[in-house]
Fold this sequence. Notes:
Elements: H1 31-57, H2 59-66, H3 72-104, H4 106-124, H5 130-133, H6 136-152, H7 155-166, H8 172-200, H9 203-210, H10 212-216, H11 218-230, H12 236-245, H13 254-259, H14 262-293, H15 298-326, H16 328-352, H17 355-373, H18 376-379, H19 389-405, H20 408-419, H21 424-442
Helix pairs in contact: 1-4, 1-7, 1-8, 1-11, 2-3, 3-4, 3-6, 3-19, 4-6, 4-7, 4-11, 7-8, 7-19, 8-15, 14-15, 14-17, 14-19, 14-21, 15-16, 15-17, 16-17, 16-21
Amino acid sequence: MSAAPVAAAPPSRTSPAPVPRAAGAPTATDPALVRRAVKAAALGNAMEWFDFGVYSYIAVTLGKVFFPSGNPTAQLLSTFGAFAAAFLVRPLGGMVFGPLGDRVGRQKVLAVTMIMMAAGTFAIGLIPSYATIGVWAPVLLLAARLVQGFSTGGEYAGASTFIAEYAPDKRRGFLGSWLEFGTLAGYIGGAGLVTLMTALLSDGDLMSWGWRIPFLIAGPMGIVGLYLRMRLEETPAFAAEVAKAETARPKVPLREMVTGQWRALLLCVGLVLVFNVTDYMLLSYMPSYLTSELEYDETHGLLVVLGVMALMMVVQPFAGALTDRVGRRPVIAAGCAGFLLLSVPALLLIREGSLLAVALGMGALGMLLVCFTASMPSALPALFPTRVRYGSLSIGFNVSVSLFGGTTPLVVTALIGATGDMMMPAYYMMAAAVVGGVAVWFMTESAGRPLPGSAPAPERH
């Protein structure tokens, strides 16, 4: 039998309620197989954010290629409109790929999402310009973005589930943290490549052919990622679930993934909200805030953001290991408390304007964000039992990202415009921290324990 959903009653801070365990003998994990699983999962996340970094930093050029007009602002808005469209279909992708992953297996679905992500990104690099095929150019761009968004809907939940179900119980936090290491590496790679190309190529070369190069790189990346994922076996937890079904793979109605897990889903939405609002605020909105609102030099702003992400990459595995020792709840709670108390001081430092002050303010926010990036890949899968883990997590994660994370830059910009208050980014992060804090209070500790519905997973030495 699968374990019961996570209880809604607040657990003791000193003695967290035990996570339900499934009957069955312990399943020792193979370290070599675990490492391959982590690499295969992290590469998909890196590809997603490589595209994110490329698209964000080459948006002005894409606007000229696909949306020619006499108004640069209209071009940029059209480009980011196509970018935002991907967020609209993410929940749909989650509702398709998540339940499918619980029915046919994590490995098969992750192979499909890898193919779709790579194909969508690669296709952008092949689309003729507006000058060549007219209105079909932006139509094809939008179609490619929708393919990317749809496939991404099944990527993060599947990748985090895959790593969590392969990892030994006592190292799940450390191994899961490499998923977000891939996120940061992909973003730095994409943004850094665009920065390098902008510096080396003339405007004419960048407009005519240079902008295609970062997107075409997705093809080889996808082939490597697909190779790694196809070499993997199904996770032990899913294999055990199939074995319990005896005659058929487990089939769970979509409604059961929602109504049957509503408490865990609410916790998931709350945790993902604080995770993604702060993530998109720091990595996506702050570069625009520095340049458009504070009139900060664009190059210096980009370098500061890339420097913060590089620092986060260094700290990430150590923070993941810390969650295995002290627990996920204390680390996530520390991040929420930090954003509640330090968002205003950090933003005041950023607004001071000097390079040192901006770097210190951004660095402080980056270190607080690590509390989430290091713990969420292991904490979120532990909210759900094995038989619905991929599906329920996909739905909760993508709904929260689409409603709150992806809309963060737009909402904050609108709030600043409506109120004239330049401190709105800090207030928005503080509000998200309150929601995250409530979710942390009600979640149970999962560090060092079997996943709900799974047998214990000690490490093989």
